[in-house]
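[Solved] Which block belongs to which protein?

Original post:
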Amino acid sequence: MISLPFNLVAVDLDGTLADEHNRCSPVDLRAMHAVAEQGAYVVIASGRMHAATERFWHEAGLNAPILSYNGAMIKHPRDGFIWFHLTVPASLAEEIVDFCETNGYHLNYYLNDHLYVRENTPWSQLYHQRTGSVIEPVGSLTRFRGQSPTKLILIDTPETTDNLREMFRERFGERLNIIKSNDEYLEFIHPGANKARTLQRLAYHLGVPRERVLAIGDGNNDIPMMRWAGYAVAMGNAKPAVKELAHRIVPPIEQNGLAVALVDIFKLDEQEVWGS
C-alpha cells in the first residue's frame, strides 16, 4: 500500500487548472488522475458554479466531491448529492439587485445552479468566454424577489469593482462575504462561505487532518484555503499575496505548474503524466 504525503488535495480551477480560454492541459489532468488513483481525495475547489466545474471533474477522472462557489457549496457530480450549501439571504440579494438595476451594472445571479442575467452584455460575454457557463437572460432580476441565491457577481472594470467593494463592505459589514476573485469580479456570498472553512468541513467529513491537506492555487480567493492547509503551493502566475504565503512556488499554468507539483510531491510516473 502506497504511503501518501497528503490525503486530500484541493486544486483551484481558474489560473491553476483551467487557462483564460477555459482549457486544461491533458498533462495536468493526467497528474490529478494519477494522484486520485493512488488513493488521495483530489478536490476541485473553485469560485465557479458547480455546473461549470463538472466537465473538469470528468476529464480528470476524479471521485471526490467538488467545492464550488468559493466555498458556498459542496456537491458530488456522481449522484448530484449536495453535502453542504450556504446561500445569500433574500433581503440582501434584493438590495444588490436593486442597486445594480438602478445604476446600470451587470450582475450575475446564481440560483439552483443556474446563472441568470438581466441581458447579455460585453461583461456576460467575457464571463462566458472565461468559464463556458450557460447564461440565461431573463429581463429584470427583480423577478427573483424572495429567493436566496448561492452567489451574485457584479462585473465591471477593475477600478469600478475596487471602489464598489469598499462601498458594499461599509453597507453590509459582516452580513456578507464580499471578495474579488478576479480583477473584474465583485462576488457576494454568505458570510460563512470561503474556501478554507468549507475545505475544513470537507476534510473533517473525510477524516483527513489539516496537516495532511495540500492546497494549490493562484488567486486571492485561494488565500484562505492555502493558509489553512498543511502545505500550500502557489502557481508561478499567482497573485503576489498568494506567493508570499506559499510553501512552494511552481511554474505558471502555461508550463503545467500543477503537474510539476503533483509529480514531485507524489512521486508520480513522469512518463505516464508527461507522455512520450
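(Second protein starts here: sequence line, then its C-alpha cells.)
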Amino acid sequence: MLTLLIGKMPTPLGELLVVADEQGRLRSVEWQEFEGRMQRLLALHYGKPGFVLREAVNPHGLATALEAYFSGELSIIDTLPVATGGTEFQRRVWAALRTIPCGQTLSYGALAQQLGVPGASRAVGTANGANPVSIVVPCHRVIGANGTLTGYAGGVNRKQWLLHHEGVTGHAPAQHKQQLSLL
C-alpha cells in the first residue's frame, strides 16, 4: 500500500493541500476546497484501497518550497520531484507542461502539435484538466488558441493570478520551441 503524506499550507490564493510519497515526490497539489476532487484522482490513479493518507507538517519540505514560489522564487517549482499515476498519454502531457517556461503560455493546440498529435487539442485539454499536481506541473500556463484563459480546476481567477505572478503580461500564447522528443 502506498503511504502518502498530506500537509496544508496557506497561500495568497487560499489553503493548498500538498501530498507527497515517502520518497519526497509530489503526488498531488490541490486547493483545499477541491479536496474531494483530489481524493477522486488519487483513488483513480492508485486504487481506493491502494493508498493511505497520513497528515504531516511540511512533507519533505515541499510546502516550504511552494511558499518560496509564492514569495517570488518562481524557478523553484522546476526543481521539485513529481510522481504521478495516470495514463501514458496523460503523463506525456504533464511532462510537457513542465517544459513551458515560467512567464510564457502555450495553446492546447500548440501543445498537442509539439507532442506529435496535431488535432488532439481536446485530448490534451482533458489530460491537462486531470493534472494532479497543479502549480508545479503548470497547467495554468496553457490557454486557448485565441489567448483566452480557458479552464483551470482551481478557477480562472487563480489561473490569472498565477500567470500574472509569473510575469505573463498578456494572454496571447508565446511560441514554445522546447524539444519534446525525450517524452
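Accepted answer:
You had them paired correctly. Confirming on the second one: The chain has two domains: 2-79, 88-165.
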